[in-house]
Each structure stands twice: as C-alpha cells, then as structure tokens.
Amino acid sequence: MTLKYRQSSSHKSRVYSLARKVENIKYKKQVKREKIIGPKEYRKHLLETQLHNRELEREPEPRGRATRKSSKADIIKSKRIIQSQGLDIVSRESILQEPTILDDEKYLKPIIKMGELEIPEMEVDLSNTDKPTVSFPELNPKAKAKAKAKAQAKAQAKFMNEKNTLESYIIAIPSYNRPDLIQIKTLALLHRHRIPAHKIIIFVANKEQYDLYKAKIPSGLYGKLVIGVIGLRNQRNFIMDYYPEGAHIVQMDDDLDKIMELISETHSASKASRRGSRRGSRRAASKATRKSSKSTRRMQPITDLDEFITRAFEICKKKSIFLWGVYPLANARFMSPKLTTDLRFIVGPFWGIINRHRPDLRITIDEKENAERTLQHYTIDGAVLRFNNVGIETRYYKNKGGMQNEGKDRKAEALKSVNYLHSKYPKLTQIYLGKKSGVPEIRMLAHSH
Fold first, then answer.
1. Residue 163 DSSP SS3
2. Which of 29, 66, 273, 312 could tie 288 with a disulfide, CB 3.0–4.6 Å?
3. What is the mean pLDDT of residues 275-304?
4. Cα–Cα dist 301/262, whole Å
5. Of residues 31 and 89, which shows the higher confidence score?
6. Number of C-alpha atoms within 13 angstroms, CB side, residue 448?
7. pLDDT band at 169; cut points 50, 70, 90
C-alpha cells in the first residue's frame, strides 16, 4: 500500500503525523457538534460538568454547620462564575436543527483516505514514546458487502434448519378477492388430504385484502397471511423472493376442485384362452391371452397428496430438475402412467419448484405466465418433470375473482403473450388459434436434450 504522505526517515515521525491527522479530525468533529447545539450552551455544559466533578473529588468532611455553609458558598460561587461569563441566560425555545453529516451512520467515525482506500479511525497508543503503536481495523473495502452476504447466508441456513420448511415443502396460494371461494375449493381440498395448516401460506395483494381474508377465513385452515403485491406475475415473483434459495415451494391456485390420479387395471384371461394355452403351443397361447385380456383406465382422487408432493421433490433432486407439474386435465383418455422430462407444458394451477433467485427466471407476463415458466426452466435446466398420471379438476377462466376482476380483455392479452413467447422461443413453440373458447394458446413442440 502506497501512502500519500510526506516521506520521512523515521517510523516514529510517520506515526506522529498520522496521530495528528486523527486529532485534527476529532477536533473538527467537536467543533461541528458545538455549532449544532450552540457554543454558549456547550461551554455552560462543560463548566457545570467541571464544577460537579470537583465536588465529587473533594473528600467528605464531618457533618456540622461548617459543612452546610461551605456547600452553600460553593453553590453561590458557581453561580457567580456562570454569570461572569454571560452563561446565565439560556433560551427556552427549541432550536430547529438541520441534519448534518454527523447524523449519517458511515460518518460516525472519521475516515482517512489513502489513495483509493478508506481506512476507519485508527487507535494510537502513545504511552511508549520510544515506540508508539498504531492499530487498524481489518482493511477490506468490501467488508460491508461481505457482512451483508454473511447475514443473508446465516438467515438462509436458519430457514433451512427449521422444521417443516425446506426439507418438506411450503404451499403458497396467491389469491385475490376470493375469500369465500378459496375456502370451499383449495383449502377444503388440502383439509381433506390432511395437509398441516402451518404449511399453507396465503398471499394477498394489499392491506384491504388482508383484512377481508382475515375476517372471513377461519384461522385453522391456513398457517399465515402475507401481504404481497397486486398482479399475478408480480405475486409469483414476490413469492420466489419471499423464500430463500433451495426452498421447496408448491404453488396452487385458489379455485382447485380435485387432484386426480390415473388407475390402469388389467383383467385376467378368459377360460377359453386358458384352455387353448394348455392344448396349443406357447406362442398361440400368449397370442390368445393378449386378445382376451383387457386393460381399463379410470380416474380417482389421489390417495396421499402429501406423499406425492414429497416424492415429486425427491425425483427432482435426484435428476437435478427444478420444476415439476401435472397433466392439465383429469381425463383418462389422454393421460398415461409415464413420467416425462422432455419439453411438456407445466400447467399453472398446481406445480412445484426448488427455489432459485435468478433474473432469467422472473415472470414478465400475466397471461400465459405458466408457459413462460415452463420455457424458462427447460432452456436453463434442459428438463422439466411432469406426472402424466396425475391431473387436476378446475374451471379455467370461469370463476369470479382473481384475474377476472382486473377488467382486462383476457383474449387480447393472451394473444399478446403468445406472440411474445413465440418470438422469444421460435424453435420450441407454436401459436394455436383453434380452440372453441377463442383463447389463443402457445403449444410446446416436441423437444428433448
């Protein structure tokens, strides 16, 4: 480190030079304080303090009349000294004080600048005149940033060690103007599956919504109400920022009816096929068995939702995938028992993530935000996990409240979003305008890394 001070032949003179610099800074700091409170009041305060200290240092005398006279005389003498210096009149009106640099935290200690490096106030020990010592705090220009990062890491570690948070999951439900609907839909669904209430966090838009939900929803149905921000994309981003990296977050819409799973059943062969297998060859028997055996599919409510969510996160961790989801509908005709990791649409009403604070994972659109999330994770991680044997029952675009209350033309907004996504991911998407509802859609093209 190069010092911009005058070069001296002895170490002792350099130390004294630095010590004088520090004393000058302390003196200037004292002068500024005097200007703030007023020089007259400051001198009076110092004088009274000195007189009081003298009284404390005086040895106690025997009780008696002389003691009372001397103490009274000292008081009169002190008053005369104060009057002689013109300090007996002090204004009782409050003096307005403008903020100064002394009010700023970073100026509480003097700063000595050496080149581009800022060094806080040093400690100089002059008790040994032959070899004075100077001690500095740790010289690190990025100490404040490192301390902040350390505090954040400590808070994150604390969160990770808490029970029923990171190692299991949190269910976050963004909701707007639906305090009655959320009770008979999503909260009732979670209650039927015996999901602990402390895992369920409801995110509302503002204080007015907070009071409305607080008054209408029984406290036993959820763990916490959090005031977030208005707008679906803003609320999704807020939830990601609210929890630390690595947190297991399940996001659910507030109007879910059911979560269903596909059950495939294979019926045994008939008596005729079994008889033929005994008489004919093995090949003929197996052919007859395949013809006679039948496989049926049916849907039923998922048996253990807690176990399913836990297993979904375990598979994600094993395969280094950060986003999982389910089939968009509950229809046995189109569903399959397969788990896929290629590019498949992860629907918005029910999905889970292992949280990451990345700028390229920020949601930028309200309509089709679920498609944007799918494409973001696939381009970053090369995979998204979808359970094609699990689907949801919900009414898309029909329930009152939520985004329907924003007064926007959702078809027009959807068209803007699909055009935006297709321009951003032209090789992975295709625009589809053939739905009966007339709502434009973005389709994911078959793609795998």
1. coil
2. 273
3. 67
4. 9
5. 31
6. 4
7. very high
pLDDT value for 99: 54
In the predicted model, is pLDDT for residue 138 greater than 70? no
Amino acid sitting at position 155? A
CB 253 within 8 A of CB 348: yes
317-356 residue pLDDT tens:
999 999 999 999 999 999 999 999 999 999 999 999 999 9
Q: Using CA atoms, how far apart are residues 209 and 205, in angstroms rounded to an integer?
A: 6
The closest of 360, 376, 261, 369 to 323, measured between CA atoms, is 376
Strands (DSSP E) found in 268-328: 295-301, 323-327
Sign of CA dihedral 237, 238, 239, 241: positive
pLDDT at 287: 58
Residue 318: which residues within 8 A CB-CB, separation 6 or more? none
Look at residue 178 in the predicted model and tell me its pLDDT.
Answer: 95
Angle between helices 369-381 and 232-242 (to 10 degrees): 40
Residue 423 CA to its chain's centroid (Å): 31
The strand pair at 385-393 and 323-327 is best described as parallel
Q: How many CB atoms lie within 10 A of CB 316?
A: 22
Record the tokens describing residue 442, joined without a space: 């973005």
Give the residue from 382, 388, 391 showing the smallest Cα distance to 428. Answer: 382
Alpha carbons 348 and 231: distance in angstroms, whole number:
15
Q: Which residues are within 8 A (CB) of 440 and not within 5 positions of it... i.e. 6 or more apart?
A: 411, 414, 415, 418, 431, 432, 433
Q: What is the pLDDT of residue 106?
A: 43
CA distance 353 to 366: 19
Of 17-31, 81-95, 197-211, the range with the lowest mean pLDDT is: 81-95
Rounded to whole angstroms, the Cα distance separating 298 from 293 reads 17
The residue ranking higher by pLDDT, 411 or 228, is: 228
pLDDT higher for 179 or 274? 179
pLDDT value, residue 109: 46
Which domains, ranges and CATH numbers included, belong to the chain? 1-25+99-135 (no CATH), 165-444 (3.90.550)
Q: CB-based burial of residue 340 (10 Å sphere; 0-12 exposed, 13-18 middle, 19+ buried)?
A: middle
Tokens of 200: 């369920």
Cβ(354)–Cβ(302) under 8 Å? no
